[in-house]
Structure formats: structure tokens, C-alpha cells
Amino acid sequence: MSEEQHNLANEFPEFKEQIHTLKLGDAHFRKLFEEYHDTTKAISRSEQRLDILTELEEERLRKVRLSLKDQLFGMLSKAAGK
To answer: CA nearest 65: which of 37, 44, 45?
Structure first.
């Protein structure tokens, strides 16, 4: 799956405004956002065989990305008042 498909704005289009606002004003959100982006990029590079990872390493990265996505979703939901 491509890196673009896992872009946070594509994952949560209903939170586009909150993503922008939190990236600018919340250091913790920005840190998690950057980790999510970096992890997604590492997975994409592995899928494209630009970097060679074991199945276990790639699975660990996918779990990290899912955890980050859950945390980011929680922060976005809270910011949106949902």
C-alpha cells in the first residue's frame, strides 16, 4: 500500500482542520504526527524493496503505526469535540 494512502489527512479527512491546527500549536501532537509519517515512510520503503526488513521488523513497524494512529485519532477527536 502506498505511503500516500496512509497520509493522516487521507486517513481522517474529517479532521483536516484539526490536523493543521494541532500541528502548529501542540508539540506533542506534532511529535506523534512526525513519528507516524516517518514510520509510514519506512514501511513504504520496505514494501518497495528500497530498504530490506524482515517480516518481523515490518510487522513491528505496522504495530507502531497503528498505535500512533490511535493516539492521533484520540487527540483529533478531542480537539473536534467528538
So the answer is: 37
Residues in CB range of 29: below 8 A, 6 or more apart = 22, 23, 72, 75
Is pTM beyond 0.90? Reply is no
Q: What is the DSSP string of 31-72?
A: HHHHHHHHHHHHHHHHHTTSS---HHHHHHHHHHHHHHHHHH
pLDDT of 36 over the 90 cut: yes
CA nearest to 41, candidates 68, 23, 15, 20:
68
**Residue 25, C-alpha cell as written in the block:** 500549536
Structurally, how many domains does the chain consist of?
Answer: 1
Structural domain boundaries enclosing 74: 4-80
